[in-house]
Hints:
Strand content: 5-15%
Number of helices: 2
Largest sheet: 2 strands, antiparallel
Shape: elongated
Distance between the termini: 77 Å
Strand order of the largest sheet: 1-2
Number of strands: 2
Number of domains: 1
Amino acid sequence: MSHRTLLHAIAKRATAKIVAVEDRIFADDDLAALVRGWRITRPHPFTRTYRDARWDQVGLEPIPPNSRRS
């Protein structure tokens, strides 16, 4: 069973290195997104999705009855 532990340790170390490289690659974009208050998600390795939470509020306000066109 020691090979299973060794394999796990190798995989864990490799994953940590990949994540570190990924963080360095996206550091500027992540910082800009954080400053703007955007949400950052990591759907896949070496992929980022940036979303402005304000877009979630678009269209939620009801239209006042006097502003509707006839």
